[in-house]
TrEMBL record:
Entry protein name: NAD-dependent epimerase/dehydratase domain-containing protein
Similarity-based family: Belongs to the NAD(P)-dependent epimerase/dehydratase family. Dihydroflavonol-4-reductase subfamily.
InterPro entries named in the record: Epimerase_deHydtase, NAD(P)-bd_dom_sf, NAD(P)_dehydrat-like
GO MF entries: oxidoreductase activity, acting on the CH-OH group of donors, NAD or NADP as acceptor
Domain of life of the source: Eukaryota
Keywords, sorted A to Z: Oxidoreductase
Xref: Pfam families: Epimerase
Length: 384
């Protein structure tokens, strides 16, 4: 015979049922919150084949590599350029899947309004990298800030299809002086030091600190824009260290080489007489790896909302000289000797773990990068 439950047992059952119902309610609420969170933070889906990607400053050193890797993967590319002859040089190289539009002044209001129309993603690579500075604000900081805001504003207004923008920043936006030794820079680091230097010294600021301040300011305004405007697109920044590697864009005179590649050229030609000791966190990366980081950043959903330090390893210019002298014994009377085997190490280092993990980059070594750079420079400028 089945006994009827007592009043006490009945109350216990009701309490247990109530707890179960409460737990179920919490689970349902948590799932709803998770669903809303996923919708809010959903990153850009992988662009479909033949998607149109905008690359700003496409006639520049890094941007040309970014564009070529996009084309190699089946995308169509629209580039912005200031000089028609340089853009047409690339058009002849790349063919019909490449188009370009004239943007003569990056900081002009509406400069990118037409360029962003109908593109699925944007690589904003155009930004000054030079040390020809008389006024830090006028020559570097304001052009970098305004160029970034001009591009982002245009994408917000006219880039209806844009879901992700990848901006080329720099390790300079992360690197501040650190006491002692052994510090490892990561994506969490921000350069406030250079900005304070410019504020305090004005036109007396060193060109190097002015450049670093411009990169830090330009990246900061980009992240602030995303936070304040909450646009339909998300943001990724790529922060490379010293970039070496072959040239794809049109350079007819070595005087027009970008700053980093010019270091190698000047070693090959004997213009460099003395080899400086490495800076505390001096590191390098191959231009082809930086371009790959840009392309992977627009393809991988989990990259959205992140910064990525892109670097291969620490290095010293003595290493560069040693590599070049071993590879080109016929140029030993030009390439500075320095102190072979010395001044290789740096005080601090730069982490590339996040770029390796999320962007799946395996970085090239220094010898390959320097030799490929030198071979390209010799072919273009030293064998005529």
């Amino acid at each position: 015979m089945i006994k009827s439950p007592t009043i006490t047992q009945g109350l216990t059952l009701l309490r247990n049922f109530g707890r179960l119902a409460y737990v179920i309610k919490l689970v349902i609420r948590a799932q709803a919150q998770k669903s809303r969170y996923n919708k809010q933070t959903k990153a850009m889906p992988t662009p479909a084949p033949q998607s149109l990607i905008l690359v700003t400053g496409v006639t520049g050193y890094l941007a040309a590599h970014v564009a070529e890797q996009l084309l190699d993967k089946g995308y169509r590319v629209r580039g912005t350029a200031r000089t028609a002859s340089k853009a047409e040089y690339l058009k002849k190289k790349w063919g019909d899947r490449f188009e370009w539009v004239n943007v003569s002044d990056l900081i002009e209001d509406g400069a990118f309004d037409e360029a962003v129309k109908d593109v699925d993603g944007i690589m904003h690579v155009a930004s000054p990298f030079h040390y020809n500075v008389s006024d830090p604000y006028k020559d570097l900081i304001e052009p970098a800030r305004k160029g970034t805001l001009s591009l982002l504003s245009a994408a917000l207004k006219n880039g209806k299809k844009v879901q992700r923008i990848v901006i080329t920043s720099s390790f300079a936006a992360c690197a501040e002086p650190k006491d002692g030794s052994g510090y490892i820079y990561t994506e969490k680091d921000w350069n406030e030091f250079s900005i304070k230097e410019v504020e305090q010294k004005g036109k007396e600021t060193s060109p190097q600190q002015a450049y670093r301040a411009s990169k830090s300011e330009a990246e900061r305004v980009a992240w602030d824009f995303i936070k304040e405007k909450k646009p339909q697109f998300d943001l990724v920044t790529i922060n490379p260290t010293f970039i070496f590697g072959p040239i794809l864009h049109q350079v007819e005179d070595p005087k027009d080489l970008n700053t980093s590649v010019a270091f190698v050229y000047k070693m090959l030609t004997g213009e460099t007489k003395e080899i400086a000791a490495p800076a505390p966190s001096q590191a390098f990366v191959d231009v082809r790896d930086v371009a790959k980081a840009h392309v992977n950043a627009i393809e991988k959903e989990e990259a959205g909302g992140k910064r990525f330090l892109t670097t291969s390893a620490q290095f010293g210019f003595q290493q560069v000289a040693d590599i070049l002298r071993a590879k080109y014994p016929e140029l030993k009377d030009k390439i500075p000797e320095g102190k072979p085997g010395q001044n290789y190490s740096t005080t601090h280092s730069v982490s590339n773990e996040e770029a390796k993990r999320v962007l799946n980059i395996e970085f090239m070594g220094l010898e390959k990068t320097i030799v490929d750079t030198a071979e390209d420079l010799k072919e273009k400028f030293l064998q005529k």
